[in-house]
Design a protein that fits this description.
It contains ten helices and 24 strands. It is α/β, with parallel strands linked by helices. The structure holds flavin-adenine dinucleotide.
């Protein structure tokens, strides 16, 4: 009898896993893929929305177009997860899973930074990116602060990509000379695991007169005085505050008891949780990689192999290698590529290729190859 695999979340991780199971286990597994949204959007597309390179409507991939044999998509909001019994409730149905996969990503917690909701902007969510896009035309130059508001956040280079693209935007509008751009956050360096990438980002910032301050956490905004305050009482004045909001697991994951110390602990080799036949992968998991789509996708490959091995009795597949290539927007149409590897050696490594215009084309091809693989065109 075919097994029922229930995947919660149709983001990078859920889509890759569903596609792999559909391709590898025809007729042997029935896959239910659940997401509250009707569309998927690549994280990096939020930069295109912010800087007006594309409209959100043109970037969304519609789940209704998903045509993978053996995969049923349900647009529902997951309201409770019992990992012991692998029983899931949504706003309109319930599911008993033989194998349960939690791939619900990371949520944002803007209220963890008092004043941020009233006085700050962000580009980590689609509504946030649209609000920032709409606010930029009335910004007439001044002090811009881009601040990372927590230790753990998606796509470590994204705050710097935002700074480079904002620089281009202000140059285009003749406002750059009258503006300052500062990036700050609790991390000691832009990309602490990769010296080469850190140096390239610092070099790119120096060329554009963008300042970086590490080991600095903005804990609240004094909206009236327009001051971003640090824990030690010091602060920095701003005219435009852009924050990378604090991240956390979705509330339904917190309530399920799956999370420990903020994220879901997993065996990093196969993304299994401590509950039998329950996996967690992507941003929701504490998998010892950066939180980025390429690692969510790599983790999905390892989970697919583990599930296939289990159902066919062929034993475990290759362990998750924590490797992936991330693209970084350096501005002026140039893109760099970080070849990162978190689990293959004693220490995480990251090598930089580019930036170049050719890599901008490679990044576009990366997106279209996923669209074809996941949606089955
Ligand atoms: C500005 C920006 C730039 C980025 N650039 C890159 C990049 O260049 N390369 C890269 O690899 N990564 C990048 N990322 C990171 C990347 O987007 C994420 O790491 C990736 O999407 C994580 O995949 P995931 O499947 O774990 O989660 P997600 O893709 O976030 O998917 C989680 C899914 O769960 C659903 N969900 C959540 N709660 C519920 C619920 N209760 N019920 C039902 N459904 C629910 C959500 O709707 C969502 O579709 C970027 C992110 C940002 C914000």
């Amino acid at each position: 009898m075919s097994k029922h695999v229930v995947i919660l979340g149709a983001g990078f991780a859920g889509l890759e896993l569903a596609a792999r199971l559909s391709d590898s286990l025809p007729g042997e597994a029935q896959v239910t893929l659940i997401d509250q949204s009707d569309t998927f959007l690549f994280g990096y597309s939020k930069l295109d929305i912010t800087f007006g390179n594309a409209k959100a409507d043109d970037l969304h991939l519609h789940y209704r177009d998903l045509a993978k044999p053996g995969v049923a998509f349900r647009q529902e909001c997951v309201t409770s997860i019992d990992p012991e019994s692998r029983y899931v409730e949504t706003d309109s149905a319930s599911y008993d899973a033989d194998i349960l996969v939690v791939a619900l990503g990371a949520d944002y917690d803007p209220d963890a930074t008092p004043g941020f909701r009233e006085g700050g902007l962000e580009y980590y969510s689609v509504p946030g990116a649209e609000r920032l896009r709409d606010a930029l035309p009335s910004f007439e130059g001044g002090r811009v602060v881009i601040a990372v508001l927590g230790d753990v956040y998606k796509c470590p280079p994204a705050p710097f990509e935002g700074a480079f693209l904002l620089h281009d935007h202000l140059v285009r509008r003749g406002l750059r000379d009258g503006s300052e751009i500062r990036v700050m956050g609790p991390m000691e360096a832009p990309v602490p695991i990769a010296k080469e990438v850190t140096e390239a980002l610092l070099g790119g910032m120096a060329e554009r007169d963008i300042e970086f301050t590490g080991r600095t956490l903005v804990t609240r905004l004094d909206v009236d005085r327009k001051v971003a305050e640090f824990a030690d009482g010091d602060g920095v004045e701003y005219d435009l505050f852009i924050g990378i909001p604090r991240h956390r697991v979705p509330a339904v994951v917190e309530e399920s008891g799956l999370a420990v110390d903020g994220w879901v602990p997993v065996d990093t080799t196969n993304l299994a949780t401590r509950f039998p036949d329950v996996y967690a992968l992507g941003d929701v998991a504490a998998a010892k990689t950066a939180k980025a789509g390429v690692f969510a996708e790599g983790a999905a490959r390892a989970v697919a192999d583990d599930i296939i091995g289990k159902l066919r009795g062929t034993g475990p597949g290759a362990p998750f290698d924590g490797a992936g290539n991330c693209y970084i927007e350096f501005g002026a149409g140039r893109v760099g590529k970080v070849e990162a590897n978190f689990l293959g050696g004693p220490k995480p490594t990251g090598k930089l290729v580019g930036p170049s215009r050719e890599l901008a084309e490679e990044k576009a091809a990366f997106g279209s190859s996923r669209r074809e693989r996941w949606f089955g065109e």
